[in-house]
Design a protein that fits this description.
3 helices; rod-shaped; about 45% helix; five-stranded antiparallel beta sheet
């Protein structure tokens, strides 16, 4: 019985045993990075590029779903024409995407 206790106590002194216990955590972090963090960074970069490339006349859809045409650009705001005599000013960050169709409705 004493030899069994000494065998178990000696197993904790193995320097590779501690390192091997971190391998599953490292693998989980790598999976999270490639499945969650990296795609989010790519979407954010694409959105920043879209906002930097906005110009007058672009047809856009805001993140709230408002369709409009850009009539004026400021540093932080965008003026959208949403109807013939209706213009609204929204924060530039809330432009969601460019409209791909030429549908006026």
């Amino acid at each position: 019985m004493t030899s069994l206790a000494w065998a178990q106590a000696g197993a904790g002194n193995d320097p590779t045993g501690g390192l091997l216990s971190f391998v599953p955590f490292l693998l989980i972090f790598i999976v999270f990075y490639f499945l969650l963090i990296l795609p989010q960074q790519r979407r954010a970069k694409k959105q920043r590029e879209l906002l930097a490339a906005l110009k007058k006349g672009d047809k856009v859809i805001t993140s709230a779903g408002i369709w409009g045409t850009i009539t004026n650009l400021d540093k932080e705001t965008v003026t959208l024409q949403v109807a013939d005599n209706t213009k609204i000013r929204v924060q530039r960050d809330y432009v969601g995407r460019l409209r791909e169709t030429e549908d006026d409705s």
